[in-house]
Amino acid sequence: MAGQPFNPRRTGKDPYLTPTFEQQALEFLPKLRRFAAGLAGHPADGDDLCQMTIERALANRDKWQVGTRLDSWMYRIMRNLWIDEQRARNRRSRTFVSDEAGLLVGIDGGQEARVELGNVDRALAVLPPEQREAVVLVMVEGFSYREAAEIVGCPVGTLNSRLVRGRDALLAILEPRA
Amino acid sequence: MSITDNELAAFADGELPPAEAARIEAAVAVSPELAAKLAGHRALKARLAGHFTPVLEQDVPDRLAALLRPSPPVIDLAAARADRANRSRLPRWSWIAGPALAASLLIAVFVPGDRDSPAGYADGQLAALLDRQVVADQNPQSATRVLLSFRRQDGDYCRAYAAADTSGIACRDDQGWALVEQGAGLSASQSEYEQAGSSMAQLLERAQEMAVGGALDAQGEQAARERGWHD
Question: B67 vs A145: CB contact, 8 Å cut-off?
Answer without folding.
Answer: no
